[in-house]
From TrEMBL:
Signal peptide: none annotated. It is a multi-pass membrane protein. Belongs to the 4-toluene sulfonate uptake permease (TSUP) (TC 2.A.102) family. This is Probable membrane transporter protein. The lineage of its organism: Bacteria, Pseudomonadati, Bacteroidota, Chitinophagia, Chitinophagales. The keyword Cell membrane applies. The chain crosses the membrane at residues 44-61, 71-88, 94-112, 133-158, 170-189, 196-217, 229-247. It comes from Chitinophaga qingshengii.
Length: 248
């Protein structure tokens, strides 16, 4: 089972890292379909998020595609709310209900990116202002991130693109930073209530797989990976897992 999961996690990290995402929604969907304990699912997904996007944040910052002022503004409210969301005691039934909703929404956002968003098209003019509004939107996503273990970039990026908040590459950099800090805050919330479940024999190989996949993905171009179509197949997987949890 671990070998199969390693391969799937490697492929997810490979594709998602090229777009600035960590892949938390897909990790959770895969682990849920495999019937993994929900506490182990959450901790593992957050750890994998951090492992994937940490390198991406460095590459985006080094290449000048991570405007730190905007990144900090987006994360100012989200980080404490991600901590609170992760600290909240959730029963297994409530967790899977929230996760089912979160995964279904993630699939919808992924379909939007696939069919309606032109990855190479930059907005004609960026809209100034509304930074506070995006900060509060980031806060709401951060709360959901902490409660479910999803990094939140899959929700944030389309909102920023629709609002013409920044260029496509900068939005990818902002999403990476957002996922990184919220995932760390989520892990801190779990640690505070002593709920981190880490099985080295299980999570260790998965972390190695996503680190390798994430580093490769961060260095390959979209033309080589064609992540748009792979993301479509991933959206089907996430939608299936989300709907299955809701009707279970």
């Amino acid at each position: 089972m671990v070998i199969e999961l390693c391969l799937l996690f490697f492929l997810v990290a490979l594709v998602y890292s090229a777009a600035g995402f960590g892949g938390g929604s897909s990790y959770l969907a895969i682990l849920a379909l495999w019937g993994i304990d929900f506490q182990l699912m959450k901790s593992t997904a957050l750890l994998c998020n951090v492992a994937v996007v940490a390198g991406g944040v460095y590459h985006f910052y080094k290449s000048g595609h991570l405007p730190m002022k905007k990144a900090l503004l987006l994360s100012f409210v989200s980080v404490p709310l991600a901590f609170i969301g992760s600290y909240l005691p959730l029963k297994q039934e409530t967790f899977f209900l929230l996760l089912g909703v979160a995964l279904t929404l993630a699939a919808v956002f992924m379909c939007y990116r696939m069919f309606f968003e032109r990855n190479n098209q930059e907005p004609e003019t960026l809209r100034e202002g509304n930074g506070t509004l995006y900060g509060f939107i980031g806060g709401a996503i951060g709360l959901l991130s902490g409660m479910t273990g999803i990094g939140g970039g899959i929700y944030l990026a389309p909102v920023l693109r629709l609002g013409k908040y920044d260029t496509a590459k900068n939005v990818a950099g902002l999403s990476s930073f957002f996922i990184l800090v919220n995932s760390i805050a989520g892990l801190m919330g779990q640690a505070a209530k002593k709920a981190i479940v880490f099985d080295p024999a299980f999570a260790g190989p998965l972390l190695i797989a996503v680190i390798i996949g994430g580093q490769i993905g961060a260095r390959l171009s979209a033309r080589v990976l064609k992540p748009k179509w792979v993301a479509g197949a991933t959206a089907v997987l996430i939608l299936y897992a989300g709907v299955r949890m809701l009707v279970k």
